[in-house]
Amino acid sequence: MNNATSGLMVALRACLGTPEGERRLVAVPSFTFLASVNAVVWAGFEPVFVDIDPADWLPSEASLAELQDRRGQLAGVLQCSTFGTAPSAARRASLAAATLALDVPVVVDSAAGFGAVDEDGRPLGDQGDVEVFSFHATKPFAIGEGGLVTSRSSAVLDAVAELINFGFDQTRTVTGHLGINGKMPELSAAMGLAVLDGFDQVLAHRRAAAAWLREELEPVGAAFQAGSAGSTFQFVPVALPTPAARQLLLQKAHDARVEVRSYFDPPMHLVPALAGHPTAGGLPVTESLAQRITGLPMANDLSGASLERIRDLVLSVTTTAPRAAGR
């Protein structure tokens, strides 16, 4: 793919087709990046926002269950692997059961998750009916721009292949949906082959760095994503105890010239352009987490000294004295 947003667009079209009658709603977490929702709207559907689990920040089965009374309107689910983290084996099974109960196709946005594994070492790539990954410059598998679509269904992959080539089939005829030019440029593909050579080392370094930060910061009240040990760590997502603590961290990081960001704030259901769309009941976990989440810096060659500097910034808005990084 030329990028993951295009991947989501064609994955939705391949699995859900076009809206028919009242079946126009696509369930999507509000705690996600704008591109996920953009793809839903581009495909002609309307998002209905669902809440997330308070521990692993992946979609909430209870929130999905609230859509049972909307089954006649529901066309699909866009499930997100939040921050590129693979669901645990138990969560993978429970999410699959929750979406199966809705009896609609499932597209999975795993943008930052290329290379992520769960606690058993099982990689992403076979969730739902189709799964999408990003190779953007900000992702751990960075090739400037690009993406990947995976599926266990050859029919879905055939449809995606046509949709990213204007809709042309193998006979150069358009018999299905009109498509877009979503093909990956050859230069990006060549860069991807080069990045693959050192990708295992990149992931190992990022995971070790994130694990050190977790060990240092969890005792002072910083909350980390459950089950994220095998994630890819585009950055290190951390939830501070209060919105005020996050605001203070953002200010101190700015003054220290360290790039710390808030993420998914506001959540999608509170973005002005999307505020009129429905929700699956209240979204209390989303609204609380969005006010407290931060993205701590990460890089392929992040040094021990840099990790200590990041750690000390977070500690400066807590009460624990720093220790030396044994790296």
What this model shows, in words?
The active site is at 139 (proton acceptor). It comes from Modestobacter versicolor. One of its GO terms (biological process) is polysaccharide biosynthetic process. The modification N6-(pyridoxal phosphate)lysine is found at residue 139. GO terms for molecular function: pyridoxal phosphate binding; transaminase activity. The chain has 327 residues and is of the alpha/beta class. It folds into 2 domains: 4-193, Type I PLP-dependent aspartate aminotransferase-like (Major domain) (Aspartate Aminotransferase, domain 2, 3-Layer(aba) Sandwich); 200-315, Aspartate Aminotransferase, domain 1, CATH 3.90.1150.10. Helices cover 35% and strands 13% of the residues. The protein is built from 10 helices and 10 strands. The protein has helices at residues 4-16, 34-42, 61-65, 89-102, 154-163, 186-197, 199-217, 243-255, 284-290, 304-315, and strands spanning 25-29, 46-50, 74-80, 106-109, 130-134, 147-150, 223-224, 236-239, 261-262, 293-296. The strands form 2 sheets. A 6-stranded mixed sheet has the order 2-1-3-4-5-6. Strand 3 (74-80), helix 4 and strand 4 form a beta-alpha-beta unit. Helix 7 packs parallel to helix 10 (304-315).
List the helices and strands and how they pair.
Layout: H1 4-16, E1 25-29, H2 34-42, E2 46-50, H3 61-65, E3 74-80, H4 89-102, E4 106-109, E5 130-134, E6 147-150, H5 154-163, H6 186-197, H7 199-217, E7 223-224, E8 236-239, H8 243-255, E9 261-262, H9 284-290, E10 293-296, H10 304-315
Parallel strand pairs: 1-2, 1-3, 3-4, 4-5
Antiparallel strand pairs: 5-6, 7-8, 8-10, 9-10
